Amino acid sequence: MTESDPSLFERMIAGEIPADFVHSDERTIAIRDISPQAPVHVLVVPRERYRNAAELAAADPELLAELFRVAARIAESEGVAESGYRLLFNTNADAGQTIFHVHLHLLGGRELGPLA
């Protein structure tokens, strides 16, 4: 797959690939991760494709902020807002980014421990 091909998320948005949607609006979607790393693992994704968090921040800071607002609402609805949750971007290959369409990971539902 090249960067000019539709991303996995764009294919999910188009209905070409099934996904477990927990949120959808005109600018964002949120889906359950297919390989969850915590009891709650949701990906919050802008419909418009940006390669990574840095590119999104430079191009549309309001959309970046919207990802965080959506994540907070999902954390509340998933019952992890009070106990705690982690929000995480993987930016580029060395950080573990495998889909080059920016997405915010929301993880919670258990004690997550340190990052490193």
TrEMBL record:
It comes from the Bacteria. GO terms for molecular function: catalytic activity. The active site is at H103 (tele-amp-histidine intermediate). A motif (Histidine triad motif) lies at residues 101-105. InterPro entries: Histidine_triad_CS (IPR019808), Histidine_triad_HIT (IPR001310), HIT-like (IPR011146), HIT-like_sf (IPR036265). Residues 8-116 form the HIT domain. Coiled coil: none annotated. PANTHER family: HISTIDINE TRIAD HIT PROTEIN. This is Histidine triad (HIT) family protein. It comes from Actinopolyspora xinjiangensis.
